[in-house]
Amino acid sequence: MHFDRNLLLEMLQDAISDQELFIVGLTVSDSVMPKVTVTLDGPEGLPIQTCAIVSRRLARRIDEHYGEDSAYSLEVTSPGADQPLTDPRQYPRHIGRSLALKLADGTEKTGTLTAATPDGVEIEEIIKQKTKKTILPAAFYSFGDIQEAKVVISFK
């Protein structure tokens, strides 16, 4: 069986149309039993109950289109804490947290996210030297300059 990714995206958009969610990723494996993996996020994160609702809605649409006898597995999930931020809408809820940025020019910056706009982010970079920590004034980085951004998880 072969799933049409564009059709699945339409079905998924329909399944989340009444939610404040956005699609972070959609993958379909080309194995004997295809696996559809949906990654969603929202302004306040993604509760597990919402994953279940979206999963049921999407499964119903897939079954209606491809037939109830079609064999596939479906996973609806949120990005893990260790996953990079890939959509500008993911940043605002992380204001106040530490981010690690890899920039397009090869440099890396780590600091506290102080602002997120539709165009980019502002971070107060933290420079560590032996026992001394210096916090630089906030600097702006456009999304076009950010190659990868991850929330730095600390266990204090």
UniProtKB/TrEMBL annotation:
Subcellular location field: Cytoplasm
Keyword Ubl conjugation appears in the UniProt entry: no
Coiled coil regions, renumbered to chain: none
Domain of life: Bacteria
Keyword list, A-Z: Cytoplasm, Ribosome biogenesis
Protein function: Required for maturation of 30S ribosomal subunits.
Protein name: Ribosome maturation factor RimP
